[in-house]
Design a protein that fits this description.
four-stranded antiparallel sheet; five-stranded antiparallel sheet; single chain
Length: 359
């Protein structure tokens, strides 16, 4: 009984899945194959993608300084390999970029690194860092941290991108964990011709579809850059600035069927710096006003209540939304500006990173 799947998704003719149609082996086998394929590949696109202009993000750290930190979703408990692609150049070549992957609840930490070989921007290659999770972890969100160690000179970054490596066929035996939920692998040898079709297949298919629909999808991800070099006044943002309210958003679709999940949840992670007990610091995002309760990362699980973008939803025949920061007076006061400088004394509270993860 193999829990295998094809290298490309096996799509089913929707017209064959309506009442009065004969139940054929073709459709049943394809549905089983497709479920396994989606468990292995679903959610393995970009979970992180951030870029900087030429001459902006440069580091000469010799001590492994952590410059950036992002929250990302993990597809399932069985996805053990994170691939991070770095576009950067080094002067001289041979300096090192490190990636640390951390699970906040368990405290599990996993590392990877690469030596930068390009000497000019976008010269010949991207460096790919592989981080392997070597212990059992059941958290669906984790932290990615970027650090630099230079022997001499500097590293200048153009972009950082991360994705999870898909699973290979066949899937393992037994229930496959996705956080606290479970996926039931489909044994394709049970779905062939001249075999009994039990009600178990329908029950398992519905359960699997519900589980797979809950997979996290990065809608917006941004990190400020800590301790970068100052290149004559050109320096990457360390904290969210007032102008970001106007531009920091994504246009995203809520895919067909997603609004059928009763507990549809959008997870928002906001990292603040210099917060102290008793401080009141609020951020308007995703149609909510959120109050920070601690220094560092604050997390919120929110229901979908913002309105669709009517014209785009009609044009694309999907529920399309604008997801991100709100252009409000609250954000103008909360974010850094000429009147609220990061170097002021006492040090102001500011937003150092933001992640919005939907489904």
């Amino acid at each position: 009984m193999s829990n295998s799947f094809s290298s490309s998704p096996q799509l089913v003719d929707p017209s064959r899945l309506t009442a009065s149609q004969t139940i054929r082996t073709t459709e049943v086998s394809k549905l089983g194959d497709l479920q396994n394929y989606l468990f292995a590949n679903g959610g393995c696109g970009d979970v992180l993608n951030q870029a900087w202009e030429d001459g902006v993000f440069r580091s000469n750290s010799t001590t492994g300084t952590q410059h950036c930190e992002w929250y990302i979703p993990r597809p399932s408990n069985k996805h053990y390999v994170l691939k991070i692609r770095i576009a950067a150049h080094s002067s001289p070549t041979g300096n090192t970029v490190g990636i640390q992957l951390k699970f906040p609840i368990s405290g599990g930490v996993y590392n990877g690194s690469a030596t930068i070989t390009d000497s000019t921007r976008y010269a010949s290659s991207f460096e790919e860092i592989t981080v392997n999770i070597t212990s059992s972890e059941d958290e669906l969100f984790c932290l990615v941290r970027l650090n630099v160690t230079c022997i001499s000179g500097y590293i200048e970054f153009a972009s950082v991108e991360a994705r999870w490596q898909p699973l290979t066929s066949p899937l393992g035996t037994g229930l496959q964990g996705q956080g606290a939920d479970s996926y039931i692998p489909q044994g394709l040898s049970r779905l062939g011709a001249d075999l009994p079709l039990s009600s178990r297949f329908g029950v398992e298919a519905l359960s699997n579809i519900t589980t797979l629909r809950k997979r996290g999808r990065t809608l917006l991800n941004w990190s400020g850059v800590n301790s970068a070099m100052n290149l004559g006044g050109s320096i990457p943002e360390e904290g969210m600035s007032a102008f970001n309210s106007e531009i920091m958003h994504s246009i995203v679709a809520l895919y067909s069927g997603m609004n059928q999940i009763e507990d549809l949840d959008v997870d928002i992670f906001i990292k603040v710096q210099n917060w102290s007990s008793g401080d009141v610091f609020k951020v308007d995002v995703f149609g909510y006003q959120l109050t920070m309760s601690q220094d560092g990362w604050n997390s919120f699980g929110l229901s979908l209540r913002i309105d669709e973008l009517e014209r785009m939803s009609r044009d694309f025949r999907q529920s399309v939304y604008k997801v991100g920061l709100e252009s409000t007076a609250t954000n103008s006061q909360a974010f850094l500006s000429f009147d609220k400088n990061i170097n002021d004394s006492p040090s102001p509270i500011y937003v150092a990173a933001l992640a919005i993860i939907g489904v």
